[in-house]
Every structure is written in structure tokens, then in C-alpha cells.
Amino acid sequence: MKLIFTKGSGKYDLMEVFRQSGEVERVDCPKQRIIPHDMVHYAVEHTLQTRGFLGRVKDGEDAGFQMKPEAQSDAVERLVEVFQGDAWSGGTSAAEDMIDMYRVTCIARACPSLPIDANAIEAVRSAIEELSARWQSVPVGGALQLEL
User: Fold this and answer.
1) Is the confidence at residue 74, as pLDDT, over 70?
2) How far apart are the first and last CA of the chain?
3) Cα–Cα distance between 43 and 41 in angstroms, integer?
């Protein structure tokens, strides 16, 4: 599956999902001062080789915002939220603090957590940093392509 993120000039960026069937779905991504939310999903899912929102889309589900609950993808969503929070605050939180926040978030949302450790946190953080650098170099109207 090919993902193309296009940097918008207004409140939204755009993610286009190109399926092997030829079908294309478009998702508006609200700007959030960091890489788009679904690009954070890419960093987490691709780096940890786990199935979350994008994995479900790749498996045929619609790229909409309302998916039925599923334990693994719910756990991935919580982890994406933790990485977003870290990025919004400068991306320097200690790995153990992020793991603790992830556990608390999963408990609060009554979903299982993925088995993550400091190495996983650092690997995803590196992926986010690399994507952030690439995204920052994209001009408004330009695009960044990823494969999943």
C-alpha cells in the first residue's frame, strides 16, 4: 500500500491511500505542528511491525475515523498518542516515562498494552525524527510518499 502525504496551506494536510486494487482514499489530516497523526502511525506500525490503523486499512478496512474496537489496533492508537504528546513537548521524554504513560493510558482506556521497552521507544523516536526532517523539507503543495 502506498501512502502520499501532501502538505496543505490551511488547517489540513492530506493523506492519500493507494491500494493495490487501484482504489484511492483521501483523508484530511488536521495540522498539529508536528508530522500528521497518520504519519506517526506509520512510524509506530512500520518500526514495531505491528498492526494498527494503517495495518487495518492495508487489510481492506476504510480509512475513516470510526473503526470498530480491536485490541491490538487500540493498543497501537494509545502508543501513537504517547508519541504525539512527546513530540509536542520537544521529543525528549525519558523512555521509561513514556512507557509509564503508555501503561496508564492503556489502563484508562481498558485496552491491553503492547510489550515495549526503551529500545522500542528509541527506534520509533528515531523514525519520527527522520520523518519530521523529511516532512519539514516538503513545501506547501508538495508530497511525501511512504510504503507500508
Assistant:
1) yes
2) 5
3) 5
